[in-house]
Design brief:
It is built from seven helices and nine strands. It starts with 8 loop residues before the first strand and ends with a helix. A hairpin with a 2-residue loop joins strand 2 and strand 3. Helix 3 runs antiparallel to helix 5. The radius of gyration is 15 Å and the shape is globular. The strands form two sheets. A seven-stranded mixed beta sheet has the order 5-4-1-6-8-7-9, sandwiched between helices. It has a two-stranded antiparallel sheet with strand order 2-3. With 193 residues, the chain is α/β, with parallel strands linked by helices. The longest helix has 13 residues. It has one domain: Spore Coat Polysaccharide Biosynthesis Protein SpsA, Chain A.
Amino acid sequence: MIAENGVARAGFVLAGGASSRMGRDKALLPWRGASLLVHVARQVEMAAGSVAIIGPRRLYSDLGLPVFEDLHPGCGPLSGIEAALTATAAQWNLVAACDMPGLTEVFLRSLLEHAEASSADAVVADGGRGLEPLCACYRRTCLPAIRQAIQTKVFKLADALAGLRLERWPVEPAQLVNLNTPQDWDHYQAAHE
């Protein structure tokens, strides 16, 4: 557990993807004097008061942050969310993907504050193209539904979360840009230097 009982919030960054379209580990791409993963982790930690990485220890243990591995490797990001909710005792858990450089402390803190005032099971950012479940706050009580989805091999996030009370949180699309290919990375760097 990374949070003691009674702690209201915790933060996690998912870095367990294969980065197959990028051709190299996108979590370790250099960004603003660190790696993309460390940059996003700093934002999450400032917003949530803690941060842990969900991904392979062999890749990220030297970053000086707690690292929890997927409990069901190869099952996609749903397994990462499961690992985060298993590792925490916090009521609300901020989960962010490592490939979203537009995430900021202010943005993530607002998302958490909105979640804490909500009666939903999860509050999920929506940049106008639909829900982005890899920028969301999940109550720890979502864990049984997520485990059930994994057990029944429902790995598509939208389907796995369908039984939960989800609340959309509208945001600017630029805040949810994720980087999947070398072209995405080149374009983002050129636009934000």
